[in-house]
Design goal:
30% strand; 21% helix; alpha+beta; single chain; 71 residues
């Protein structure tokens, strides 16, 4: 299975502020310009996959996108 890391610039027309991340996650009131996309093979998916767990740290999530591993 694949996962994608996407870098965005958000235009906050509604002046939502830092809570804009909630808006993005819920697809409301945001216009985003995509800066870059990186693809990673994350192996077989299961309910206990690290990317499916809220306890997985951002550092551990980003390990899937290590350039040396994926290029």
């Amino acid at each position: 299975m694949k996962a994608y890391k996407v870098e965005l610039i958000i235009i906050d027309y509604e002046e939502i502020g830092p809570d804009i991340t909630w808006e993005l996650e819920n697809l409301e009131y945001a216009r985003a310009d995509i800066i870059s996309v990186q693809e990673a093979d994350i192996g077989e998916w299961s309910d206990d996959h690290p990317l499916n767990l809220g306890s997985t740290t951002n550092e551990d999530k980003l390990k899937y996108f290590d350039n040396e591993k994926n290029n």
